[in-house]
Design goal:
The protein has 119 residues and is mostly helical. The longest helix has 24 residues. The protein starts with a helix and ends with a helix. The relative contact order is 0.18.
Length: 119
């Protein structure tokens, strides 16, 4: 279970760290080709979302690797499930109805929760 957690959580953390960093540092124009929904939310909210993603990615990796507050890992994964439920809602209420990635991330985060509880 330990190896499975590190593989799944590591991939999830890499994805969210990358996506969150892009949301924090790139302009709306640079993000638009990848994320059609960026015009629907204010820029400070977009930056905050990126920050939450980076912090969540850190929460998946740092607590279990250091042994300090390891219960933060399943909490971060729960946060990612909730984040993706919100993302699916945003996609379905807008023009962009492509949610396959969001569903995949939701399932991956749910598996991460299950694995983190068993660490």
């Amino acid at each position: 279970m330990n190896i499975a957690y590190w593989i799944v959580a590591g991939l999830l953390a890499l994805f969210y760290f990358y996506a969150g960093t892009l949301k924090v540092i790139r302009s709306r124009d640079q993000l638009r080709p990848m994320m059609a929904w960026v015009d629907r939310i204010p820029l400070p909210a977009l930056r905050a979302l990126g920050t939450v993603e980076v912090l969540g990615a850190t929460g998946l990796i740092l607590p279990p690797s250091t042994g300090v507050a390891p219960s933060l890992a399943p909490a971060a994964a729960i946060g990612f499930v909730l984040l993706q439920i919100g993302a699916i809602t945003v996609h379905l209420t807008g023009e962009d109805r492509r949610i396959a990635l969001n569903v995949g991330l939701t399932v991956t985060a749910a598996v991460t929760i299950w694995l983190a509880i068993r660490l």
